[in-house]
Specification:
Elements lengths: L1 H31 L3 E5 L18 E2 L12 E9 L2 E10 L5 E4 L2 E4 L10 E5 L4 E4 L8 H9 L2 H5 L6 E11 L4 E13 L2 E5 L11 E2 L4 E3 L12 E9 L2 E10 L5 E4 L2 E4 L10 E5 L4 E5 L9 E11 L4 E11 L6 E3 L4 E4 L11 E3 L7 E5 L9 E10 L5 E11 L5 H15 L6 H15 L1 E2 L8 H11 L1 E2 L1 H14 L3 E6 L8 E6 L4 E5 L9 E4 L1 H10 L20
Parallel strand pairs: 1-4, 6-10, 11-15, 17-21, 23-27, 28-29
Antiparallel strand pairs: 2-3, 3-4, 5-7, 8-9, 9-10, 10-12, 13-14, 14-15, 16-18, 19-20, 20-21, 22-24, 25-26, 26-27, 30-31, 31-32, 32-33
Helix pairs in contact: 4-6, 4-7, 5-7, 6-7
Amino acid sequence: MNKKRTLILIFIIVFSVLIGMLGGQFLHRYKQLYKVCVSEAGVKVGPGDFFASGTVRAEFAPDSEPFSINEPAEYRIRLKSGLFTYKSTLIIEDTVPPQAEAVAVYCPVDSMVVPEDFVIDIRDATAVELSFTPYPAASAASVAVDALMPGTFFDLDTSVVGRHEIPIFLRDQGGNETVIYATLHLFEIVPLVTVEAGSPPPALSDFVIGAGEAAFISDLSRMDMAVPGEYAIGLAVYGGQYESSLHVIDTVPPLFATQDISGFAIQARQAADFVLWYEDVSPVEFYFLSEPDLAYIGTQELTIVARDAGGNESRETAQLTLRADNEAPVIRGAKDFDAQVGDNVAYMKQVVATDNNPEGLEFYVDQSNVNINAEGAYPVTYIARDASGNETRVAVTLTVHPKLYDIDEIYARADEVLERILNDDMTEREKLWAIYRYNMNNIYFIPDSEKETWERAAHEGLFDKRGDCFVYFATAKVLLERAGIKCEDIEKVVTSRRHYWHLVDLGEGWYHFDTTPRSDHPTIFMWTDEELMEYSAQAGNSHRYDRDIYPRDGRVVN
C-alpha cells in the first residue's frame, strides 16, 4: 500500500516538473517573439526572424498565411516551435524608390509609343508601373517636374518633328516614385514625293524630314526619271526601314514640227512619217486625228496628234499630196539557167526588181512547176508587184541536167587544196592572194570549155586543171566559199564573148577579183570599180557589167 502511494507521488512530482519546464519554455519563447515583424520588400524572411534570439528553432505552421516578400501587405503568421504554436504579424513594406535607365526612342511622327519604350533595366523589389504623367498622389519631385514641363509632353503629342525630352514616371507598390528623362526623336517620312518627268532624282531630304541619320535603300540613279509612274522607295532611318513613294508625272505636252509629203497613192502612210522632229522627256506616239484617204489624187490636209507617256497631247497639221502610179516594176538579171539533179537552186541570186516606188514592192519567184529531182526543162516565173498593183512577170527556163559530178567530191578536193595553200597565221587578204596564186599557177588556159554548170567547170579546174574563164571562175568560186570568204558571182553583159569573175568582201567593202589570165597580164586582185572600168575601157569592154544588180547586199568600192 505504501509502495503504491510512493509511485503515485513520484508521478505527480515528475509531471509537475515537466509541466513547469514546458511552461517555462513557452514563456521564454513567447517573451522573445515579435508580435509584429516589419521587413523591407525583397528581403528574405525566415521563421527565426520572428524571435529576438536567433537560436530559436521554429518553422511556419501549415495554417500560416502565405506571404510574398515582393508584395507589400500585412500577413497573419503562425510559427511552430517545439510543442507550441505562436502568432505574429508580418508587415512587408517598400520604402525604396525604383531605379531604371532611360533610352532614346526614334520614330515617325504620329507613332504610338508607350512609357515602356523609353526604359530599360528597371530595378525594384516590387512591381513598377510606368506613366507619362504624374500619379494622383504626386510627390514633391513630381510636382516640380510638372511645373517645368508643358502639359502636352505628358499627353505625348507625337505630331511635332524634332527632339523632345520626355519625363517617365515610375511608381512601385510601396508608392515610391522616381522620374527619369528620355529623348524622343520624331521625324517625318513623306508618304508621296511628286516630281515632273525629266527632273533629276529627288534628294533624301525630300523623303525624310528631321532625321539626322538616314539613307536611301533604293538606288534612285537606276530609275528612269523620264517614265511617268509610281515607284516604291526604301529608306533607312535611325536603323529602321521605311517606305515612301516617288510619283513621276508628265504634265508638259510634246513639242514637234511636221513636214508635207508628196508621193504615190495607195501606199501606206504613218503619222510619224510627217514628223520632222519632236521634243519630250517621255516616249511619244503619233497618230492621225482622221485617217488619210490613200486613194485620193490631189492634196489633203491632215492633223497629226502627238501623245506622250503622261497622256499629254499636242497637234500640228501637214499636207499629203498623192499622184497615181502607173509604172510597172522592172526585173533585171532573170535569164535561162542550168542545174544538176538534186541541186539546191538559188533562184533569186543576182536577180533584182526595181520600181519608181520601191516602198511596198513585192518580189518573188514561182518555181512550182520545177522538179529538181528529174531531168528536164522547167518554166520559172519572176513576179514583181508594187504598192499600186502594177505587176511585171519574166519567164525563164531552168534546165535540170543529169548529175555528172558529185558536189561532195568537189568540196573534198577544194578542202585538200586549201589545206595545202592556207594556214591559220594568214590574214584574210593573204588567204585571198593564196587562192588567186593557186588558180594562176595550176590551171592551164584553153579557149573553150563546157559551160553547162559551175560544178562541172569547178571539177575540171580542180581535177583536170584546164579550162577557159568559166573554169577559172568556178574553181575560184568553190575555193572562196570553202575558205569562208564572202563572194558574189559576176557575168559580163552578154556580147559575142562571155566572161565571168567575182566580187569579194573582206569586211572593207566589195572589190573585183578575176583569176583568168589575159594576154596583157593584169593582176585583177582587190580592184575598185573605178580601176576595173578604166581597164575594161582599154581592153575592149572586157568587164562591162550591169552595176544595178551587183552586189545584192552592198556597194562596190569605187
